Amino acid sequence: MKLDITTLDGDGAGSVELDEAIFGLEPRADLLQRMVRWQLAKRRAGTHAVQNRSDVNRTRKKLYKQKGTGNARHGAASAPQFRGGGRAFGPVVRDHSHDLPKKVRALALKHALSSKAKSSTLIVVDDVKLADGKTKALAERFGKLGLSSALIIGGEEVDVNFGRAARNLPQIDVLPVQGINVYDILRREKLVLTRAAVDALEARFK
């Protein structure tokens, strides 16, 4: 698969041959769904909790005698049906993450990249470097390229000025190539890869 390379100013900078085994697959929605579910579950804190019967500091004495009052049979005042009692079946602190094989995760990333290539929302740029970290100047360049919602993947390290200029732009995410992931790829309209990012991804999957 051959794709033209552009610059941040919109000028041509040659072309690149993309590996069909990474960017030319037929996207599978089931793999992408499993990967997104795994990512979102993994980042949940799981610190939600409530006070149950054993946590409520109330007397355990029986409210009144069992028989003869005409009222319902009750025990401790910490029971869930009483005001101030413990909550029944409330959330507890737990780990929401689940297992997903490493090969499935790698395949899902390939399918996410392929989905962008198939929908023609994959852009390859020569490099993402700026002389100064001015958001206004970068926004004008993005306007020429038609980038309003995009994930931009740089090389091993993102240029400091570029990252500073892009962080104030809504719906624009910038990550180093090590941080590329399925969820961030799918949540933005376009995917922008640098030439270094393409080389790193091809080397990663070989």
What is the topological layout?
Layout: E1 2-6, E2 12-17, H1 20-23, H2 29-42, H3 102-118, E3 122-125, H4 135-145, E4 150-153, H5 160-166, E5 172-175, H6 182-187, E6 190-194, H7 195-204
Parallel strand pairs: 1-3, 3-6, 4-5, 4-6
Antiparallel strand pairs: 1-2
Helix pairs in contact: 2-3, 4-5
Short recap of the structure:
It is built from seven helices and six strands; from the N terminus they run E-E-H-H-H-E-H-E-H-E-H-E-H. The protein is an alpha/beta fold and 206 residues long.
Can you offer a commentary on this structure?
With 206 residues, the chain is an alpha/beta fold. The protein has seven helices and six strands, in the order ββαααβαβαβαβα. Helix content is 33%, strand content 14%. Strands 2-1-3-6-4-5 form a six-stranded mixed beta sheet. The protein is elongated, with a radius of gyration of 27 Å. The two termini are 17 Å apart.
Instruction: Classify the secondary structure makeup into a structural class.
Output: alpha/beta
N to C succession of SSEs = EEHHHEHEHEHEH
Radius of gyration: 27 Å
Described by the principal axes of the CA atoms, the overall outline is elongated
Unreliable spans are none
- Beta strand count: 6
Helix content: 25-40%
- Kindly estimate the percentage of residues that lie in beta strands according to DSSP: 5-15%
Please report the distance between the alpha carbons of the first and last residues: 17 Å
Question: What spatial order of strands do you see in the largest sheet?
Answer: 2-1-3-6-4-5
Mean pLDDT: 92
Main sheet? Answer: 6 strands, mixed
Number of helices: 7
